[in-house]
Amino acid sequence: MKSKTKFVFNMLLGLLLLFGVGIYSLAKLSEQPVSMNMANMPSGKHDMQQMSSSGISVTKLTEDTVESPVKTFDLTAEEAVIDIGNGKTIQAWTFNGTVPGPEIRVQEGDRVIVHVKNTLKEGVTIHWHGVELPNAEDGVAGVTQDAIPPGSDFTYNFIAKHAGTYWYHSHQESEKETGKGLYGAFIVETKHPTTVYQREIVSILHEWDRSTFTVDGTSLGAKYAAKPGDLVLLRLINSGDATYNMTLTGSPFLVSAIDAHDINEPTELNERIIEIGSGQRYDLVFRMPESSGVKLVNVDKNEKQSNIVKRLFFTSSSTAKNRMLQATFGDGEVTGNVNVLAQQPFFDMTTYGSPVLQGNDPLSINAKFDAQYDLTLGNMLGFFNGVFTMKFTINGQTFPNIPMLIVKKGDWVRIHIQNNSPDNDHPIHLHGHSFKVLTHNGEPLSGSPIYLSTILVKPQESYDIAFVADNPGLWMIHCHILGHAANGMDMMVNYEGVSTPYSVGSKSGNRPD
Ligand SMILES: [Cu+2]
């Protein structure tokens, strides 16, 4: 080789090597530590960090010993082959052999005792989504407990304090395990019913491999018996990742509760389209017509096509547009025209129902807050835990580098959430608390007070939310599109002075998302 050619060749080789080393070290640098203690995450407030490592352990934050009626349940995590219709069977991970798992139904004030046995080959937990319970019962692997190992068991013990629609799911590798079927409904009945329903129906919406959609475990369309004139309470739960655009046709309806919180003076809606974010629950009330049926349908609002990057790296954030997601009530024909539903407007929780006197609900935009935080949500291509992928960020960072929010017991906390992702919904879920929605895109709410445990933040939208820090512990706040959570979008809300003996990472095998 001529010396000049050789020189160029060597230089190119050197550059290539440098590039390779660069990529390798970027990937390496993004790898998570083998063991992370969630009480000692970066906070920017060093003194408080010290306190949290020496304070009360989450294991001590258990339910009071007060006497309550006891309801006991047994759940066994086990593999089962599930027929979801349309010729498709799933090698599912189940509780007690069914998907959804058994409905757990108790009364307000009951002590709920759930014995969980794990016969799977991997660890599991149960998280009680939306339930305000003591931290030790929250079921987050590596934060409030170790994942229940194969062949072992674990008992959850808490009092169901507030009536409403909730659900449960595994919070060990939650994207995989909830996706495979480890979920079910948790219903807390009110002790003082003000309305008598002739029918009560629980419908869980789920998706499988981002391609098959089921209502109540079937893609064939669920069928529910109901008689003419029946007043029906329909509890809708989104256990999937996508946002579901759902409406009822054939009867006007009320949204009586969202995320287990009653709406004040709900008004009648006709074919209004409800966007149900992952993890959210909507209670709908309708009366069966005299001779026709009622149908629950998924509506395609002709959203823009997902772009190539999204298709390559992550697709399930797009809105589910699938006719499999439907259910019929009663035997009669449905009178509404399903094909024109897409032109109906969206339901707007920020103007729905009536306000209450402020004295009865003091959390407001004018209240004095002890702590205020800004969370800006986004996504970008990059290395996350050693892999080049679409990562989902809060304030530009990914788990575990997102500084935790630190609160004290009794604090009034306000959080501003802005979604800067160009086309990803982010349903943000706070564990252990309900929060009040104060503003939407800077505008105060004008209808009923809205309390949620998961808020669907659409692209370019913002919300202010507020909560009272009345439940000490180490609590996750994360996107409930579990694929986003698994790619970085989760962080902690930690009370000062709470520690955990558990850790997240490959050493313990605890992976909450
Ligand atoms: Cu998200």
TrEMBL record:
Domain called Plastocyanin-like: residue spans: 85-191, 382-494
Keyword tags: Copper, Metal-binding, Oxidoreductase
One Pfam family here: Cu-oxidase_2
UniProt KW Oxidoreductase keyword: yes
A GO term, aspect molecular function: oxidoreductase activity
Keyword Oxidoreductase part of the UniProt annotation: yes
PANTHER family assigned: FI03373P-RELATED (PTHR11709:SF394), MULTI-COPPER OXIDASE (PTHR11709)
Protein name: Multicopper oxidase family protein
Organism: Paenibacillus cremeus
